[in-house]
Amino acid sequence: MPANPGKTETVLRGVSASQGIAHGPVLRHIQGDIEVPSHTVEPTERAREVERFEQALLVTRRQLQELMTQVQNVSADEARIFDAHLLVIEDPALIGETIREFEAGGLNIAACFNRVAQRYIKAFANIDDEYLRERAGDIRDVTQRVLQNLLGRQIRTLGEQAGGRVVVANDITPSAAAGLERSGILGFATDAGSKTSHAVIVARSLKVPAVVGLGDFTGRVRDGDSVLVDGYEGVVILNPEAATLRRYGAIRARHEGFEERLREANERPSVTLDGVPMTLRANIEKAADAGAVREYRADGVGLFRSEFLYLGGPGLPTEEEQFAAYSHVARELAPAPVVIRTLDLGGDKPIAGGAHLFPREENPFLGARAIRFCLEHVDIFKTQLRAILRASAAGNVHVMYPMISGADELARANRCLDECKRELRAAGIPFDEALKVGSMIEVPSAAMTADILAETCDFFSIGTNDLIQYTLAIDRLNNRVAHLYEPAHPAVLRLLKRVITEAHARKLPVCVCGEMGGDPLYVPLLFGLGVDEISMAPSLIPAARFTVQAMRLADARALAGRALDMTSPKEIHALCEAFHRERTGCARGGA
Length: 591
Fold this sequence. Notes:
Layout: E1 10-13, E2 15-18, E3 21-29, H1 46-72, H2 76-79, H3 81-90, H4 92-105, H5 109-125, H6 130-150, E4 166-169, H7 174-178, E5 187-190, H8 198-206, E6 210-212, E7 226-230, E8 235-238, H9 242-266, E9 279-284, H10 290-295, E10 301-305, H11 319-333, E11 337-341, H12 371-376, H13 378-391, E12 396-401, H14 407-426, E13 436-441, H15 444-448, H16 450-453, E14 459-462, H17 464-472, H18 490-505, E15 510-512, H19 523-529, E16 533-536, H20 541-549, H21 553-565, H22 569-584
Helix pairs in contact: 1-3, 1-6, 3-6, 4-5, 5-6, 9-20, 11-13, 13-14, 19-21
């Protein structure tokens, strides 16, 4: 018997964005760009028009600060999302271009601002990096708010309408999501979006089930329809039947029980059944993430992505700004290690106020990115290295270089580091003279020359995302070939084993800090191959710890040995899946 007589159950698959299961009536929320009028402003009114623009920016700032306060009541870390929004309305490039366009053409300021903002939005929307591409939504959110204030239009809040319902939207802006904490929203499903969108980050902080990337779901639903959101598997069911609801009731109960097991496991050490301790570190993106490192009991930071300091601001961060961020994390987590990756930017990641540094490249992933960019712009590189060195006096800081392709690049980077050390010594500024230096292994040439690189660094960190992409010649963001992106490919495993063997022969530890390390399915395989540490998003640590506690290292080594003898990625994946399921009773860290 259908739960909704006369309506057919329909199953859609999207991307799991926030875990949990929700069921309830639909609230359909369609947001689009504001229609901005365009007209000429008389010369006598132009000063007044600029004043109107400045006033709209001030009003928008106050509104964003109020939203930040609302989110702080739920999560102080997530409230910092709006720091980026505030930077948008303070960006001298965005404001300056708007004023120049207005003065040159005489069109109303709203039309000029909208035109300039759309250029920024387009630039970010075309970036290959998923996290940075999602920032286009943040810019659109802020600029739409400025335009509403300029045009005197009322801003409706989603939170006022969402109580007791599942929001189905084409997309949800961070400011709309920020108003949901007191709304009683059950969950949400969106046509667009990804796991890294700020709206999703807010949803996770509120523990609201969410599925994104559903295509044209909003076109298939009506207000009042019944919908079930499965945030574990990325499934949305429109008009679920009674049998489906009973089945999901049982699934919800199992998941809640499993999550309690993960919480209990996370309170115990990461030690295998045969008594071997395993090191689990955290990947972070900003200084505020130090709290999550402690919350999830990580063994320090295996990857601090420093490039996020360079994005969204009006220009390049100063040495003092970088020092403040790095030293904060070092002090908060001492004596645990904090591994800071030097700037990893390329032609696909624009910097506000520094776009001239990144001329357009046909293939930015094979262009002047990461260490190549730094060695082209030694002044920028040394500013960062000095900040890292100074922060090393505050805690256990390590530094590592991204996208090293050979010994020459590593030597040049180390020479820059040595110059910075001499400058700080001459100035009497303290730093850790024994600062450890690591090389990221992300390209096949680095993996194949690991024995040479090991002679002039202290540790390796394997970035599996890029290593897999470059090894298999696959753009994992290209839907036509993304299905070929295979962590369990024999070529990938052989490269991993080679790097580990060469490093251990020279007593260098090896960490894995890519997405492969955050998948509980591959945790036994990686430790079995000989990896010393795995670093992942803090929230993934409980599932990895649970997996470690359920296995014997001797068995994991046998698993790795069998996997290295196999020729099919599917067979290797199935082997890892069976190993994980037999020991934990679940698949891929789920119930």
